[in-house]
Design a protein that fits this description.
Elements lengths: L3 E10 L8 E8 L2 E6 L8 E6 L4 E4 L1 E3 L22 E6 L14 H11 L4 H7 L7 H10 L5 E4 L1 E2 H9 L1 H6 L4 H17 L3 E6 L23 H14 L3 E6 L4 H15 L3 E6 L7 H15 L4 E6 L5 E3 L11 H6 L4 H8 L2 H12 L14 E4 L13 H8 L3 H11 L5 E4 L6 H7 L5 E4 L15 H12 L5 H16 L15 E4 L5 E2 L3 E3 L8 E3 L2 E2 L1 E6 L2 E5 L2 E2 L14
Parallel strand pairs: 1-4, 1-5, 6-7, 7-8, 9-10, 10-11, 11-12, 12-13, 13-17
Antiparallel strand pairs: 1-2, 2-3, 5-18, 14-16, 15-16, 18-23, 19-22, 20-21, 23-24, 24-25
Helix pairs in contact: 4-6, 6-7, 7-8, 13-14, 16-17
Length: 570
């Protein structure tokens, strides 16, 4: 009988605990790490030997903020995340998901997700199994389907509210005492079945609500009251387990933060607050959140900040872009079909409002200043002269207001003009400050969402390549702690996030000098041939999930060793 199924020799081991790296060997047997040695392990005792000379051997990454709830049903590896070394992830973020959902509400819930998270409706219709109704049944589906990653799930509050109150009622009023009891019971049942906690988005109905429903109205969770949230928090306090993920940004940041503190105190479990990000135009924003989290932790509150660590650039067309929803004038012209959007863009009144917004420098939350929008790619040959110009440059070249110049261009191309918005979260010192805090967790890949605009799932690769290797914001040891160990501890992944004997063998082996993301490209790999933007990874030699190789040199092996981790463990 062999001692190891796989022996990794001569690698530089970074174990995720912040301990100094060391050269050593690592043995895997039956899906677990069974031996780690600085002095060598016998190759003859292994079925397979991997020479990791000159390579980093580290724990697989843990992605806490994804929306792969639909995609995992047709993509077992949850790419982009699976390409970029993620071996475990969490579904059901922001209060959005597909359970519990009554059969007659399935299309409406998919329509909601087609805008709020910009997941293509046709792909969901063709690719989702819908062999469940309740949340425990959804977890049974997750347990059964092939997976190339490990999965946890929140109980998403949105479907719970719709199940009990109905969609329209949940948007317009408070639950009755009986409805609140019923919703708390659904959370209990979800936790009993293996959920890791519950999630919610609370963006209100104001300018901050950048993620809205199919018709442009707020999501049901945006309208949830403090009292209802606190009742849900009490469910976790009584159980003494789980955690809360909350995306909150209403009209008054002071009230927002005070409420999150109150909720953390009532729940007495970790609370993951979304989001903190460097903002080159408003540097005080991240500083304020960091100071708040530090003070909250000193009070004994377990509040953590989910940090956007990769460039927040966007590439999109106005055919289906929705991330201007936080600004009323832009939201109005980006609702509806292509013809409806084009008609609104020609409205003199709407153009006047957009020109005013531009002139006063009103900055949409997700995109940064409108003047910096870039005409990346045009459709018609006669428009080639405008490619590469910012809106400001476009207006100057045409001697017109930039808004009129852009809108006329995209209308002439039936909204197929490709727009690029440059990142505005790349200030090195602001990012350094964010990761000086003990309580920031990198992530917000939004994996599975905004598939035609964003490729944030590359964040793990670029966290190491950009922040460690190129900018030296963190040490490699600190980076792997942040990408694996800290999110595991915070969210309840049992026995994962570090390399240690007896732990599951979720491992990445990569070339530190070569690690990078590939350029953005379009891939028609969703059901029905639907397309998305992707960025793959270079430099990962091997990615292991539960002791099996899922990717070797970027090529998928077809293995699906991932597991549903009820209550954080297999």
């Amino acid at each position: 009988m062999t001692q190891f199924d796989v022996l990794i020799q001569n690698g530089t081991i970074v174990d995720g605990t912040r301990a100094p790296r060391f050269r050593g060997d690592l043995g895997i047997k039956d899906g677990k790490v069974v031996s780690i040695s600085r002095h060598g392990l016998p190759a003859a005792a292994a079925t397979r030997v991997i020479d990791a000379q000159g390579l980093i051997v580290a724990p697989g990454f843990i992605d806490l903020h994804t929306h792969y709830d639909a995609q995992i049903q047709w993509d077992p590896y949850c790419t982009l995340s699976g390409w970029h070394g993620v071996t475990s992830l969490v579904l059901g973020n922001c209060g959005f998901g597909f359970a519990p959902v009554a059969p007659e509400n399935r299309d409406r819930m998919m329509l909601s997700m087609s805008r709020v998270e910009a997941i293509p409706f046709d792909a969901m219709q063709k690719g989702m199994l819908w062999d469940w109704v309740t949340f425990p049944e959804w977890l049974d589906t997750l347990s059964r389907i092939p997976k190339g990653v490990n999965v946890l799930s929140y109980v998403p509050i949105g479907p719970v509210m719709v199940w009990v109150m109905g969609l329209e009622e949940a948007k317009r009023r408070e639950p009755t005492p009986q409805e609140l009891t019923d919703m708390c019971r659904l959370i209990e049942l979800g936790m009993d079945a293996g959920a890791c906690g519950w999630s919610v988005q609370r963006l209100g109905d104001g300018f901050t609500s950048v993620q809205r429903d199919y018709d442009g109205t707020p999501m049901v969770t945006d309208m949830i009251s403090n009292a209802t949230c606190l009742a849900f928090a009490e469910v976790l306090r009584k159980r003494g387990e789980g955690h809360i993920q909350i995306t909150q940004a209403k009209e008054d940041i002071r009230e927002d933060l005070a409420f999150v503190e109150q909720m953390a105190e009532v729940a007495d479990v970790p609370v993951l607050f979304n989001v903190v990000s460097a903002n080159n135009y408003h540097p005080r924003q991240s500083k304020r959140l960091l100071e708040w989290a530090e003070k909250a932790q000193k009070k004994g509150l377990k509040i953590y900040l989910q940090a956007v660590s990769v460039g927040n650039d966007l590439t999109y067309t106005f055919e289906d872009f929705n991330l201007l929803d936080g600004q009323e004038d832009w939201r109005e012209v980006t609702l509806g079909s292509v013809d409806e959007r084009m008609q609104k863009m020609q409205s003199p009144e709407r153009r006047a409002a957009l020109r005013r917004d531009y002139d006063v420098g009103r900055m949409p939350t997700a995109t940064g200043p409108v003047k910096n929008f870039v005409i990346k790619e045009v459709i018609k040959p006669e428009h080639k002269c405008w490619e590469g110009m910012s809106l400001q440059q476009l207006g100057e070249a045409q001697k017109r207001h930039p808004i009129d110049a852009m809108l006329d261009l995209v209308i002439a191309e039936r909204l197929q003009t490709v727009i690029f918005t440059p990142p505005f979260n790349d200030d090195v010192e602001l990012n350094r400050e964010i990761y000086q805090s003990e309580y920031t967790v990198p992530g917000v890949s939004d994996g599975g969402a905004h598939t035609k605009f964003l490729t944030l799932g590359r964040y793990t690769t670029e966290f190491i390549a950009d922040f460690v290797r190129d900018k030296k914001i963190l040490t490699l040891e600190e980076a792997h702690y942040r990408l694996s160990c800290l999110p595991a501890k915070m969210s309840g992944f049992q026995d994962r996030g570090v390399l240690a004997e007896g732990r599951p063998a979720d491992i990445v082996i990569y070339d530190f000098d070569e690690l990078r993301s590939t350029p953005s490209e379009i891939s028609h790999d969703f059901p029905g041939g639907e397309w998305r933007r992707v960025q793959k990874a270079v430099g990962y030699r091997f990615i292991f999930v539960n002791g099996e190789v899922t990717f070797q040199d970027g090529v998928c092996t077809g293995a699906t060793p991932g597991k549903l981790l009820r209550h954080g463990h297999a």
